[in-house]
């Protein structure tokens, strides 16, 4: 296998340059027609370009050579019911944006997920959007195709925070036949709510190996910034009122 070409093919896929990824994997297969990894990459490139029949054909070649190849089996399970040959409309979120930040990000499993043909077109990193109707928030593609709903408690909270001026981005974190998880990131926060995170974050109150007598008493912190404290207190109350209302 030409390692240089293989790395190029991987890099093109990471950049979402599916035409070059397709062509590079085809070059590899000219010299190594039984290269399983290249066949899998070629299948993915075909699928992303909307060439469903070629994607399925390439996957079948992989399974003929390696009937237990997990990547090929997973792709076949996802794609076998897909018939419409259109390009995946969603953008891609950079892997760096999947970094979790306490209070600013949350991974949520969608309820009432879409049908399998729609699930088959979703991939990790796809950018998706919120659609607010009533008390619930649905998650949709940029062509307004329904994907699933956020659980009631998350829907209600995010809806109220959006009303207060918070902004969010949504992307597919993981997808399987029956489960879709989205990655929610707080993209913007109103200036007067800078100390109010969108989500609760787990906090370690103390080190379990610390002697109990060392943690019973906490130092009292006295601040001279009275005006600032009053302002923050007012903002906190406004935030609480907005969430509870």
UniProtKB/TrEMBL annotation:
PROSITE patterns, A to Z: TPR
Biased composition (Polar residues): 231-245
TPR repeats: 36-69
This protein's record includes keyword rRNA-binding: no
Region listing for Disordered, in residue ranges: 215-245
Keyword Cell membrane: no
UniProt keyword list: TPR repeat
Name the UniProt record assigns to this protein: Uncharacterized protein
Organism: Candidatus Woesebacteria bacterium GW2011_GWA1_39_21
């Amino acid at each position: 296998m030409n390692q240089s070409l293989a790395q190029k093919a991987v890099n093109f896929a990471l950049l979402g340059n599916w035409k070059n990824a397709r062509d590079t994997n085809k070059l590899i297969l000219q010299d190594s027609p039984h290269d399983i990894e290249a066949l899998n990459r070629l299948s993915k490139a075909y699928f992303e370009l909307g060439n469903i029949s070629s994607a399925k054909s390439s996957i079948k070649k992989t399974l003929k050579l390696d009937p237990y190849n997990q990547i090929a089996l997973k792709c076949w399970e996802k794609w076998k019911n897909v018939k419409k040959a259109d390009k995946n409309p969603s953008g891609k979120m950079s892997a760096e944006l999947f970094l979790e930040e306490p209070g600013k990000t949350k991974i949520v499993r969608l309820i009432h997920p879409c049908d399998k043909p729609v699930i088959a077109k979703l991939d990790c990193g796809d950018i998706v959007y919120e659609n607010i109707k009533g008390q619930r928030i649905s998650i949709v593609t940029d062509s307004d195709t329904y994907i699933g709903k956020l659980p009631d408690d998350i829907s209600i909270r995010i809806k109220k925070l959006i009303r207060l001026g918070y902004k969010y981005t949504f992307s597919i974190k993981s997808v399987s036949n029956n489960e879709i998880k989205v990655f929610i990131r707080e993209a913007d926060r109103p200036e007067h709510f800078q100390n109010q995170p969108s989500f609760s974050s787990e906090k370690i109150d103390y080190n379990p190996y610390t002697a109990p007598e060392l943690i019973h008493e906490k130092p009292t912190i006295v601040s001279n910034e009275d005006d600032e404290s009053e302002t923050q207190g007012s903002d906190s109350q406004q935030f609480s009122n907005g969430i509870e209302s």
